[in-house]
């Protein structure tokens, strides 16, 4: 250690505190990395690895990136899941005695990005803190670019399942947690198998009740947690406190813009598990993971980034509060019917920048002049927006109007102080208006005067010397000088002092020139420093108003999102759904919002739906492949979801009895990559549904049981229908598409179960899909016809038909044989099938049903029983 150079000693001392980060160590114009960090960074960033003498026998591995291009490299490291600790010089090198003081000024982690070019504009970037306590799980998550922070907690046997649902919704880019095990399960493994994200175990003391509570109180400068709604929410307090501590440690900033923690109960929102989100393609498509083709793609017509983020959140978090839903619907209704109003709003909102993130950067202390101008331009349209909102009737929009603060004082401040087109940097002047600051004005004047004086001097010297090409120029090394070409050297006056010789010219200085130069340069230096200070002051003043800006931003985001709903609802012919607390789900001429959008409007065939928790609990849907079963079922789920986010729906009429959860199990998922068989995945998803659904849930099942042998699959499907449709168990509204035509026999046997099929028309050898859902079961699967439509060659199709015919003939023969009682007994499972799917004891049942037990004598009862036993025997 003694042999190390002082700089290396400084480096290692710092590195000791940031072991889990890559340390970017500022040396001049570079950030350098050493030792292990250098090896990692050289590999990950594909930059050259060199070495540096460090006082040890071997050179320290080193690599570096120029500081002005560092963002790009940092982004790449973050993307790969590393944390980057930025170490800067924290004192002026000229004032330093010995080695310049350096310190880490910020740790950048995947969940704590604020730089606009590292962040997707229309998505939040969340960091989540999870506290696993004895009695429950606390969750807190924050987006530090916008200042949002929310928390909730889960208890009981379903706490872990609830946590996973929350993870699927929030999709955090980084997770910190207090422990690695919970109830004997490795949490890291559990989360990793569920979601690919960066997980760190954080200091357990930070989650301790007392510490966490104090951390929250200190952050919000409050004496009790009452006002935050966190009293007795111990798991939430632990998660939130630790999150604030982690943010403090990494950001080294006051984080004043994170001025509200909002507690929410998960029951406030419709729960959607990971599979359902994926299957319904809410924000991205299943296959390509892109927005185009998702529900969000259809609904998002927002004009601002904050509106887009709000809308995304609404889609991910449908409501369960009827009043809140109706408030949104009423606002959409009013704007839907007023196209001029919408056009006006859109035009104004188009001029609004990302106020949430601007406020974040201002409060954070890294907003530049252009950010303030962007803020000013955004604020400039607020009075007009408020003005239009004044003419509006809906309560929800009036509320929004009340929340919008026109922030005229801030607008005025920026307008009077900041130049319209400021540079990117804030340390090079050109930021502050003359009229705002007299001293800046006079310094600027001095500079301008000085420059005019120099131009005059140039004219005068040309005259005095008779050299027409004489010119006065400036460079950083010599300052101002007089340049004379070689051919005129003979005319140079003797008081010119030569400074530099070039190939075809000489450069001179004279005392008057140097005098004015020092005035100009002095003024320039002063003005740059002064402008910087004035700018910081202004930014500081604005940052005192962060909360006002944030509240306004939130209101604008809501307005933008509602406007977007109104716009799509109008353009796509959606209607206002009637929302109720009962369980009737009735849709007239419903359409699938995404499929309809992807095809020309006229060709989508609308369909009706009727589900309740009574006679129409369970719809069994049959029909050939490609008939439109999945589309239909998803359409129902999407219409319910759209209604509960407060949007109009693609239908002629819709009565939506609110749903607490939507479950979907659609198609065989491709989770093979995770080492589970399709069947296993299918069954665990099914288990999730059966364990968590309630009578208020909507369940969509597509072809469950397909991943195993026919009998197994059919038996499972059968049992599932029985279980779900039964009031004693779930009785939940369910749509179930199946290839097992046997299941259609359940209609009439099980209460509330009804058959539907998607109609097709036979046309000679071919079929035509009519896409209409009608009551009744399908009698054929038309597999060969569908194969033909899919383009299978004629030879295979013809042969398939032959085989099918043979199989059908054999089947008939076999069934004749089974009626022959002289044949040997059937295998056990065949017997089971038989009893399950045909009904050989029909006459016994009939006999049983006909007994009027109240009105017969004991003797007669004995006789009837005897008869029944004999019937059984025969
Ligand atoms: P299934 O689940 O029965 O195999 P899908 O729901 O996947 O069938 O539908 C197959 C295709 O049929 C869809 O990709 C869509 O293009 C089209 N389709 C489905 N329903 C409709 C409809 N109601 N109107 C028009 N086209 C439809």
Explain the overall architecture.
With 874 residues, this protein is α/β, with parallel strands linked by helices. The chain folds into six domains: 6-108, MutS, DNA mismatch repair protein, domain I, CATH 3.40.1170.10; 118-268, Nucleotidyltransferase, domain 5; 300-407 and 545-572, MutS, DNA mismatch repair protein, Chain A, domain 3, CATH 1.10.1420; 434-530, MutS, DNA mismatch repair protein, Chain A, domain 3 (Orthogonal Bundle); 578-792, P-loop containing nucleotide triphosphate hydrolases (Rossmann fold); 833-873, no CATH class. Helices cover 45% and strands 18% of the residues. The chain has 29 helices and 29 strands. The strands form six sheets. The chain has a seven-stranded mixed beta sheet with strand order 15-25-26-27-23-28-29, sandwiched between helices. Helix 24 links the parallel strand 26 (698-702) and strand 27 (733-737). The radius of gyration is 37 Å and the shape is elongated. The N and C termini lie far apart (98 Å). The chain binds adenosine-5'-diphosphate (ADP). Residues 595, 603-605, 623, 625-631, 771 line the site of adenosine-5'-diphosphate.
């Amino acid at each position: 250690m003694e042999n190390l150079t002082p700089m290396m000693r400084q480096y290692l001392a710092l590195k000791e505190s940031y072991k889990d980060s890559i340390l970017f160590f500022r040396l001049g114009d570079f950030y350098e990395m050493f030792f292990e960090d250098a090896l990692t960074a050289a590999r990950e960033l594909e930059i050259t690895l060199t070495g540096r003498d460090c006082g040890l026998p071997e050179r320290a591995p080193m690599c570096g990136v120029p500081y002005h291009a560092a963002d790009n490299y940092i982004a790449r490291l973050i993307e790969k899941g590393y944390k980057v600790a930025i170490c800067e010089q924290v004192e002026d090198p000229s004032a330093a005695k010995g080695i310049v003081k350096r310190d880490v000024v910020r740790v950048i982690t995947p969940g704590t990005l604020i730089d606009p070019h590292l962040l997707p504009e229309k998505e939040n970037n969340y960091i989540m803190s999870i506290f696993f306590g004895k009695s429950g799980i606390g969750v807190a998550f924050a987006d530090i670019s916008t200042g949002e922070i929310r928390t909730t907690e889960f208890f009981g046997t379903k706490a872990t399942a609830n946590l996973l649902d929350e993870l699927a919704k929030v999709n955090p880019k980084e997770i910190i947690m207090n422990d690695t095990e919970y109830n004997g399960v490795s949490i890291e493994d559990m989360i990793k198998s569920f979601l690919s994200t960066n997980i760190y175990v954080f200091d357990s003391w930070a989650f301790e009740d007392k510490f966490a509570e104090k951390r929250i109180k200190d952050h919000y400068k409050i004496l009790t947690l009452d006002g935050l709604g966190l009293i007795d929410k111990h798991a939430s307090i632990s998660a939130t406190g630790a999150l604030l501590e982690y943010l403090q440690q990494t950001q080294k900033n006051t984080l004043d813009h994170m001025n509200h923690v909002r507690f929410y109960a998960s029951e406030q929102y419709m729960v959607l598990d990971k599979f359902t989100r994926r299957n319904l393609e809410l924000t991205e498509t299943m296959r390509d993971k892109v927005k185009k083709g998702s529900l969000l793609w259809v609904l998002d017509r927002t004009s601002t980034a904050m509106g887009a983020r709000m809308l995304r959140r609404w889609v991910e978090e449908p409501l369960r509060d009827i009043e809140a839903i109706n408030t949104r619907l009423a606002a959409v209704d009013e704007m839907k019917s007023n196209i001029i109003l919408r056009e006006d709003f859109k035009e104004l909102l188009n001029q609004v920048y990302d106020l949430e993130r601007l406020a974040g950067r201002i409060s954070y202390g890294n907003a530049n002049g252009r950010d303030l101008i962007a803020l000013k331009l955004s604020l400039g349209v607020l009075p007009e927006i408020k003005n239009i909102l004044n003419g509006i009737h809906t309560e929800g929009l009036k509320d929004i109007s009340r929340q919008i603060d026109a922030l005229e004082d801030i607008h005025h401040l920026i307008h009077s102080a900041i130049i319209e087109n400021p540079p990117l940097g804030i340390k090079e002047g050109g930021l502050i208006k003359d009229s705002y600051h007299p001293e800046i004005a006079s310094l600027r004047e001095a500079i301008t005067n000085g420059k005019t004086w120099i131009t005059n001097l140039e004219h005068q010297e040309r005259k005095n010397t008779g050299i027409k090409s004489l010119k006065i120029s400036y460079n950083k090394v010599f300052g101002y000088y007089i340049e004379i070409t070689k051919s005129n050297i003979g005319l140079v006056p003797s008081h010119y002092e030569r400074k530099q010789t070039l190939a075809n010219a000489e450069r001179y200085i004279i005392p008057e020139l140097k005098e004015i130069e020092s005035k100009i340069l002095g003024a320039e230096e002063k003005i740059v420093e002064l402008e910087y200070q004035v700018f910081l002051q202004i930014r500081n003043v604005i940052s005192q108003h962060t909360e006002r800006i944030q509240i306004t931003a939130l209101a604008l985001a809501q307005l933008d999102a509602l406007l977007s709903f109104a716009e799509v609802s109008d353009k796509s012919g959606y209607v206002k759904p009637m929302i109720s607390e009962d369980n009737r789900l009735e849709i007239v001429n419903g359409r699938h919002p995404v499929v309809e959008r992807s095809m020309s409007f006229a060709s989508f065939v609308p369909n009706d739906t009727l589900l309740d928790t009574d006679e129409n609990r369970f719809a069994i849907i049959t029909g050939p492949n490609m008939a439109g079963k999945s589309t239909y079922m998803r359409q129902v789920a999407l219409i319910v979801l759209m209604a509960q986010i407060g949007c109009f729906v693609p239908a002629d009429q819709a009565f939506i009895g609110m749903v607490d959860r939507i479950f979907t199990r659609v198609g065989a998922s491709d989770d093979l990559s995770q080492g589970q068989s399709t069947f296993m995945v299918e069954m665990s998803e099914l288990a999730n549904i059966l364990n968590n659904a309630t009578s208020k849930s909507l369940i969509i099942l597509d072809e469950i049981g397909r991943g195993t042998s026919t009998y197994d699959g059919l038996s499972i499907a059968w049992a599932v229908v029985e279980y779900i449709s039964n009031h004693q168990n779930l009785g939940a509204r369910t749509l179930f598409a199946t290839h097992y035509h046997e299941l259609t026999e359940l209609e009439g046997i099980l209460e509330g179960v009804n058959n539907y099929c998607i109609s097709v028309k036979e046309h000679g050898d071919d079929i035509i899909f009519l896409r209409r859902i009608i009551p009744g079961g399908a009698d054929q699967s038309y597999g060969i016809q569908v194969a033909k439509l899919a383009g299978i060659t004629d030879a295979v199709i013809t042969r398939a038909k032959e085989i099918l015919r043979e199989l059908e003939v054999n089947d008939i023969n076999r069934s004749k044989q089974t009626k022959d009682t002289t044949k040997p007994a059937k295998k056990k499972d065949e017997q089971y099938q038989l009893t399950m799917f045909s009904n050989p004891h029909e006459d016994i049942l009939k006999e049983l049903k006909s007994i009027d037990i109240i009105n017969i004598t004991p003797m007669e009862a004995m006789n009837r029983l005897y008869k029944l036993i004999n019937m059984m025997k025969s």
